[in-house]
Structures are given as structure tokens and as C-alpha cells.
Amino acid sequence: MLPVIALVGRPNVGKSTLFNRLTRTRDALVADFPGLTRDRKYGQANYDGYEFIVVDTGGIDGSEEGIETEMAEQSLLAIEEADIVLFLVDARAGMNAADQAIAQHLRKQQKKCFLVANKTDGIDADSSCAEFYQLALGQVYHIAAAHGRGVTQLLDVTLQPV
Ligand code: GDP
Ligand code: MG
């Protein structure tokens, strides 16, 4: 079983854009990886000699009737089955209540989790991303998934053996 990296975050933060960049649209054959279900979108990725599975989720907009903290069930399950979670936020839109709900859930998990501020192209990333430190998930990694900026640096950190 390859390591599983889940992309979570509210809609429109750029999860699918990052998924496509990481997998270059190579869909994983779910059947080859027992334990993964078809509810979420899986892709196989390869970076610097590491192979891993990436999971795209539909997103969490804060309006779902909740198992917990108004998070969508498929996102909760994606977090559960993941070895590593990339929690995406939108550096242009700024922090909102849905981000805070997701962060609250992730802080309770014993899961390797990285806070990733996307869409940092063409803005002052340091000042735009400063507020995300309030989510108390440690370092905020800056990327622009649409252009690939920061993605290899993120993977270098993410895929480091624990
Ligand atoms: P998802 O709902 O989280 O899967 O988000 P999508 O991947 O569908 O992206 C939502 C929107 O954000 C799309 O219009 C993307 O083109 C845009 N987007 C994604 N990544 C970036 C980025 O790095 N920079 C900018 N400026 N826009 C982006
Ligand atoms: Mg999407």
C-alpha cells in the first residue's frame, strides 16, 4: 500500500487543481489499493522517487449537516484513511469559518498535517498568509497550484520520512 495524501479544504481553494498537478491526471486504479473506496477521487503520483496516492475531496463549505463541526462526511473519511493531510486555504479569499471548523477537527487528529495557502501568485504572500497562523496548525506553506509555484518545496517537506 502506497502512502495516501488527502487534499482537504473548503470548495474553491484549489484542491482539484493541485490534484491534477500532482497526478497529471493519472487516475489510480482503486481496485489495486484495497481499503480505498470510490467515493473520493484517487490519483497516483510520483515525485523524486516517492510514489504515493493523492485523494481529492469535494470540499467542506461549512453548511453540511455534520457528523462533527459541520464537516462533510467524505472529507472526514478522506482524513481518516490518509497518512498525510494537506489542508488547503485560499490566500486571496482569506480565512473564514469553514477553515476554522476544519482546523479544529485536524488539531484533534494524530495525523501528519500541513497547512497550505494556495493562490499566492501575484499577491504579497507573507502578509496575506499571516492570519492563517491563527489556525494553530504550525507553518503555513505558500503555493500557487495553478502555476506550480511552491509545490516541489511542499512535497520535499511533506514526503520526508517521519
Ligand atoms: P477546489 O474546489 O478546491 O477543487 O478548487 P479548484 O481546483 O476547482 O479551483 C478553484 C478555482 O481556483 C479555479 O478557478 C482555479 O483555476 C483557481 N485556482 C486554483 N489554483 C490557483 C492558483 O494557484 N492561483 C490562482 N490565482 N487561482 C487558482
Ligand atoms: Mg474540486
UniProtKB/TrEMBL annotation:
Chain ranges of the EngA-type G domain: 3-162
Domain of life: Bacteria
Binding site for GTP 1: 9-16, 56-60, 118-121
Function text: GTPase that plays an essential role in the late steps of ribosome biogenesis.
Family membership noted in the UniProt record: Belongs to the TRAFAC class TrmE-Era-EngA-EngB-Septin-like GTPase superfamily. EngA (Der) GTPase family.
Subunit structure: Associates with the 50S ribosomal subunit.
The protein's name: GTPase Der
Protein's organism: Pseudoalteromonas holothuriae
Residue window of the full protein shown: 1 to 162 of 491
